[in-house]
Design a protein that fits this description.
It comes from Thelephora terrestris. This is Phospholipase C/P1 nuclease domain-containing protein. With 370 residues, the chain is mainly alpha-helical. It has helices at residues 25-39, 45-53, 58-62, 64-69, 79-82, 123-139, 147-163, 173-176, 190-204, 217-220, 229-243, 265-274, 290-305, 337-342, 345-365, and strands at 180-183, 186-189. The longest helix is centred in the C-terminal third of the chain and has 21 residues, at 345-365. The protein is globular and about 60 Å long.
């Protein structure tokens, strides 16, 4: 069965109000992805997700409309990060890196010697296994109050965001955390620049015409009045419904490999401790294919993210010392940051993540196709 999204959101003209302020991807990026996904769910899917995340109470039974209205996937989109240090076993599930991967000179996915860490204990395996756990919950009849299903859903929503952040897919320097640069004169690192500063700029410079609510109820009912709402309107109206309209279906294509039996969270934890390997090729099948989806995203580390100047004097190279007074490369320039803005790079990453998350949830939970 091919994954499909629900194209219910219409395109509307909108007027202008004040320009939004800045917000960091640390929370905003994951919440944007979750909000976009929620917009493309089949109508019968969101109530099921809400029942998993918020088991029904007597109050809900008395006011079901109020309960459904208060449920938003964005509220749990950062849960996996907030509790990451309490669940240290889950840390490696947020990223993946190939051995020998060193953009921009070498982009290996995986590396010639495989993945760093343990195969399967990474974001690719995390998506595969949370998908499997939720499929088991559906097959069991959807028992209420299932903590495994609740945690699997929270992890899945978050992992789809991580998968579409290219720096979560590279083995170089802890995903760029160890590579200092400047953004608008401020010392940062490549990871934080993409995780936070570039997205903050995208939110800040979103044109005025996206700031006023539209007449599209299907779009607006899923927004929360957040500072990034105008950016979501831009992505949905003129991205998914406009410049990327003809390629959205291709975002859901999978190569058709056979996936293994899903691992429980306990089995994943055991593998992490004992070091038992699980082949990364086993993450993909004809329906959900995180490795296939991630491969071109990883290539962005060579194409977009790491400028060659980073490894040349005076910013890098054999004589460069991280503890020296060497200058740091400025990335908020027309050639680097400006190109990212002009090409809607971050916006497209959010769109792809949201559409793929929605399609996967529709596949798992929709009783019938609409």
């Amino acid at each position: 069965m091919k994954l499909k999204f629900n194209p219910l959101v219409n395109v509307c003209l909108i007027a202008s109000v004040a320009t939004p302020g800045a917000y960091a991807w640390g929370a905003a990026g994951h919440e944007i992805v979750a909000t976009i996904a929620q917009m493309y769910l089949y109508p019968n899917v969101l109530p099921i997700l809400c029942s998993i995340l918020h088991p029904p109470t007597q109050l809900d039974a008395e006011s079901p409309d109020d309960s459904a209205q208060s449920c938003s996937l964005s509220y749990v989109a950062t849960w996996a990060d907030k509790f990451r240090f309490r669940m240290r076993w889950s840390g490696p599930l947020h990223y993946v890196g190939g051995k020998g991967d060193h953009p921009p000179q070498q982009c290996h996915f995986p590396g010639p010697d495989g993945w760093a860490g343990h195969d399967g204990i990474n974001v690719l395996g995390g998506i595969r296994n949370t998908t499997g756990l939720l499929a088991e919950w559906v097959q069991a009849g959807g028992p209420e109050g299932d903590p495994v299903a609740e945690e699997a859903l929270k992890f899945m929503i978050h992992f789809f965001g991580d998968l579409h952040m290219p720096l979560h897919l590279t083995g170089r320097d802890r995903g760029g955390n160890g590579d200092k640069v400047r953004w608008d004169g401020r010392i940062s690192n490549i990871h934080s620049t993409w995780d936070s500063l570039i997205v903050a700029k995208a939110i800040r410079i979103t044109p005025h015409n996206y700031t006023k609510p539209t007449a599209d109820h299907d779009l607006e009912k899923n927004l929360r009045g957040a500072i990034y709402d105008p950016l979501i309107r831009k992505i949905v109206i003129d991205g998914i419904g406009g410049k990327w309209k003809d390629e959205v279906d291709s975002w859901l294509e999978c190569p058709g490999q056979q996936a293994p039996e899903p691992l429980s969270m306990w089995q994943q934890t055991t593998q992490l401790i004992l070091g038992r390997a699980w082949r990364s090729s086993d993450t993909d099948d004809e329906v959900v294919c995180p490795y296939h989806w991630a491969t071109p995203l990883h290539a962005m580390n060579c194409e977009w993210i790491w400028p060659k100047e980073m490894d040349e004097p005076p910013y890098g190279g054999p004589s460069f010392s991280r503890n020296s007074s060497h200058p740091y490369l400025e990335l908020d320039t027309p050639e680097y940051g400006g190109k990212i803005t002009r090409e809607w790079v971050v916006e497209k990453l959010f769109a792809m993540a949201g559409i793929r998350l929605a399609a996967t949830l529709n596949y798992l939970f929709a009783a019938e196709e609409l």
